Amino acid sequence: MRPRITRMTRRPHRVLAALALAALAAGCDDAAAPSADGPETGTESLRLLSLAPNLTEILFAMGLGPQIVGRSTYCTYPPEAADIPAVGDTMHLDLERIIRAEATHAFLLTRRRETVRRLEGLGIRVVPVEADRMDQLREAIRTIGAETGRPRAAADLLSQLDADLAAVRRRVAGLPRPRSLFAFPMTVGSSRIMVAGRGTFVDDLLRAAGAENAYPDRADWPTVSPAQVVQMRPDVVIINAATEGPADRQARIRRAWRELASVPAVRQGRVHILEAKYLTIPGPRVGRAARLLAETIHPEPDTAPSFEPAAVRARRGSGGASSSALSRAMAEGNDRPLPRPARKASPATCCARDIAAGALRLRSGQAPARRAPALRGAWRARLPAPRQGEAAP
To answer: Is the pTM of this model over 0.70?
Structure first.
């Protein structure tokens, strides 16, 4: 015989059902993304792991710095990131620290299944993104905004990036676009050179800075031989030496590149060594990177080349310390294009400059002894004839 169900036995089931529905509704409200018109809230419960430098910069730029509870070893900017515990990197995770951090989300660039599996095994929502190209960077910012409930902050950051890049493009509009090669220092014991291929975000930065990538093919970061560099004939070479090295690292780099004397950039003294880390970090500072590249590729006509002797730079006045016209224009908020570079000097003018440079080297004892008579003769030939009663120099 079936047991009789009394009113007292029905009532608990009804109460439990009501409580379950209420809890489900509350959970849905908490998980709902903020509307486009409403305020962005609900980030207090977020505990974020940022496992790439550019992602840490993006999170800080979107106002999510306080929610980061763990960072990669390489995340050093902004300075506030140093106060966040380091949890290794995507290749070597410190699982003990990650467990203590009690993270809810992990943002990373890698799609290595092992890394994703380990983090997901700890109950963390893993969000892999890509940022090898400018369009991927933009999509990564949107994804972070959606995952953290900050779509408006993501949109504001994208607008700022667009404005920064547009400002650089305006100021180099109409200028010649030299063939520029973006490279890393040669590895010790190897003659291969890693360069930025077409299609990378550095390629996008070069175009924004008013240059054409000298590497002809679409590739991420290919390695090339010195012979290939000679074939590419870049007008400008930019070497990113942001990583730490020996004290004489720049001198070593310059000596290595002087061996490629047939390359136009080397011959014209347009090999530049830059040490700004943000040049290769696809994040909120891409506009700043484009500006630095533009200032390097389009200097003032009287800016001394990077390989010019120190005595010549001193003779020219500023020692290479003057800022470019682009820098001044941006500081003044001037949107007008940069002035056209001065016309190419005539052979006679070039000869006079060479003679002056040689004379300075001669005075400082840098000129080879066997060339001294020729330099003296050429130098004297360019001077005005002495007046009556004056001795010749």
So the answer is: no
User: With 60 as the cut, is the pLDDT of residue 382 above it?
Assistant: no
pLDDT tens, 104-126? 999 999 767 889 999 999 999 99
* Same domain for 249 and 361: no
- 123 and 200 assigned to the same domain: no
Region 19-43: mean pLDDT is 42
Q: What is the pLDDT of residues 209-262, one digit of tens each?
A: 999 999 999 988 999 999 999 999 999 999 999 877 777 888 888 988 999 999
- Domain with 154 in it: 48-163
For the chain, percent of residues with pLDDT exceeding 70? 64
Q: Tell me: pLDDT of 319 over 80.
A: no
Total structural domains within the chain: 3
Same domain, 221 and 328: yes
Q: Which residue has the higher pLDDT, 366 or 118?
A: 118
User: Is residue 228 domain-shared with residue 194, that is, in the same domain?
Assistant: yes
Task: Verify cis geometry, omega within 30 degrees of 0, for the bond prior to 176.
Answer: no
SS3 readout for the chain: CCCCCCHHHHHHHHHHHHHHHHHHHHHHHHHCCCCCCCCCCCCCCCCEEECCHHHHHHHHHCCCHHHEEEECCCCCCCHHHHHCCECECCCCECHHHHHHHCCCEEEECCCCHHHHHHHHHCCCEEEECCCCCHHHHHHHHHHHHHHHCCHHHHHHHHHHHHHHHHHHHHHHCCCCCCEEEEECCCCCCCCCEEECCECCHHHHHHHHCCCEECCCCECCCCEECHHHHHHHCCCEEEEECCCCCCCCHHHHHHHHHHCCCCCHHHHCCCEEEECCHHHHCCCCCHHHHHHHHHHHHCCCCCCCCCCCCHHHHHHHCCCCCCCCHHHHHHHHCCCCCCCCCCCCCCHHHHHHHHHHHHHHHHHHCCCCHHHHHHHHHHHHHHCCCCCCCCCCC
φ/ψ of residue 144, rounded to 5: -65, -40
Same domain, 236 and 308: yes
Q: Does one domain contain both 225 and 308?
A: yes
Q: How far is CA 38 from the centre of its chain?
A: 34
